[in-house]
Amino acid sequence: MVVDAVLAVTLAGVTVVYALQTYGAQYRAQGWRPFDAWAIGLTLLVHLPLVLRRRAPWVVFLVACAGLLAYTAARYQPSVNPWAPLLACYTVIVHRPARATVAAAATTGIWMVSGTAAGIQPLLALAQSAICVGTVWYFATGMRSLSERNARLAELTERLRQEQELRARHAVVEERVRIARELHDVVAHHLSALAVQAGLAGYVFDSDPPAAKAALASIGATSREALEEMRSLLQVLRLAPDADEDGPYLPTPGLDGLDELVDRSRAAGLDVRVAVTGRPRPLAPGVDLCAYRVVQEALTNVLKHAGASARVTVALRYGADRLDAEVGDDGAGDRPGAPLPGGGLGLIGIRERVKLYGGSVDAGPRPHGGFAVAFSLPLPAGEA
């Protein structure tokens, strides 16, 4: 709007100044009226509506053409005042393609009328009009095509962004459903232990009070652990209405199966080295499952992206209150043929798993080549 206002005022001012300087004895000798206040008013009528040329291009075009015709009919020399209809025609072609042909034809006719009124030969006036309007048509249609292409690209970009966000949300929901299924075994384990311990406590309550007391203490510890894991689960997971309630449940793996996982990776071609520092000890089933799945996904990513024969290091560090681990490769493996597909959804699953147990993840390229996934999981006080 501001640009169009500056353009309209500038064009009107230049036209008025030019007319005042060029209206000399020659025009008066040809019978043209002197450039007086009425001429200035008609000139402003032709040019100032250009301020609204983008909002109402067809109306502005009609006003500019009517103003130029009135200017010519009033016997003012028209050769100083023809540019506003041409610019209005350009705007109609760009923004109102359905009326582009009408605007071009009308502009050509008005230019011919003005040209012949100014004393130009009809054929020359026609040629002049056709050249000017044709040039405007060429640039206007080019600009319209560019604008339409940019609009399509913007629409496709927005649609792609929405689809990516939708895929990411679906991936998170699906991963949470898988986590819930795996934690089912953990909860079932706790409930089974509670049932056995409760039965034992009731059986020996009179005959062996110390054993019953120990069973009750174990029930309390197991209950607290189960409640803690369920609380963590409810904080992160949300209900997935389309989840398959009847899907199969698999036994819960843990770091005690790390050797088998490494052997499978080696059989696929990876050169895997395992380094364990600290004192390995049994972990809570949920934490154990999380650590195992993260290492499994990291090794799968190495095989997909770095390729077979890549050198991989799996480092586990058992601390007093945390388990720190890192799976890193050198990026120097062989991957014949096309690369395996991967959309980054595995990293989403890794972050969701670790977040479930209050841990942190750092995944990214290594400074000297390759890729590394490092994670840290807090350990309950009873496991320290």
From TrEMBL:
Which EC number(s) are documented for this chain? 2.7.13.3
Could you say which enzyme class this protein belongs to?
transferase
Q: InterPro entries from the entry?
A: DUF7134, HATPase_C_sf, HATPase_dom, His_kinase_dom, Sensor_HK_TwoCompSys, Sig_transdc_His_kin_sub3_dim/P
Which reaction is this enzyme known to catalyze? ATP + protein L-histidine = ADP + protein N-phospho-L-histidine
User: Which GO molecular function, any one, fits this protein according to its record?
Assistant: phosphorelay sensor kinase activity
Ordered alphabetically, the record's keywords are: ATP-binding, Kinase, Membrane, Nucleotide-binding, Phosphoprotein, Transferase, Transmembrane, Transmembrane helix, Two-component regulatory system
Which GO cellular component term is one of those annotated? membrane
Q: Where is the Histidine kinase domain?
A: 293-381
Which residue ranges run through the membrane?
Answer: 35-52, 59-77, 120-140
- Entry-linked PANTHER family: NITRATE/NITRITE SENSOR PROTEIN NARX-RELATED (PTHR24421), NITRATE_NITRITE SENSOR PROTEIN NARQ (PTHR24421:SF10)
UniProt name for this protein:
histidine kinase
